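With this grant's support, we have settled on a layout for protein records. A representative record follows, to show the layout.
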Amino acid sequence: MYNNNIANENTAVMANTNTAPAMGYMNNGQERQMLISQMSANGQIMNAIEGHENAIEAAEEKVEKLEKKASTKRAVIISLLSLIIASAVSGSSGILCFIFLAAGIAFAIVNKMKAQKELNAERAALESNRQQLETLKNDVSLAWLPYDYRDSVSFRYMYGYLQNMRANNLQEAINLLELEKHQAVVETLTAISAQNAETAAAAAKGAVGVAAATAVFSLLKS
């Protein structure tokens, strides 16, 4: 993701916040290059953070599915379906009805237990990934970066701003990121509002058409 060789030979890597005071004596280009070097040096840990972020997202989706699968409601539904099938297949035979019903209930119980076991394992893996992610985000090598921006998406955007010379320092990169996030929210809300307005207009037009048709129908009847 990140180019560890991007800094030239005369650019030192800013290892921690102790080097921050020296930034005040640099011009914009030097400060930008210094920060790019720092972010390049943190590329490996940021890749690890991204890996855990992806694992957490996937685990959360799987946990949600397994929670539904392991729910008591699902087991009850399966049992009721087995009762309906048993009644339809067995006809008047009470013994066959009991066998089908017992098999359906047993299946529902086994299915619920299996899903619960998988759910517990997935929850444990999810918690482990969260803890490892938190450990990485609190690593001393990222002390120069505010905690709220120690995620792979923010890091990647700010890295791009610096490389493309849209920002010269960390504050400018953060401000630009927040501005673009805000703009994205505004654009999304505007699009939703426009869509809702279009839907409302279509509904109103349809209502007018129905009203007109009703009026014509009434005239024809009279």
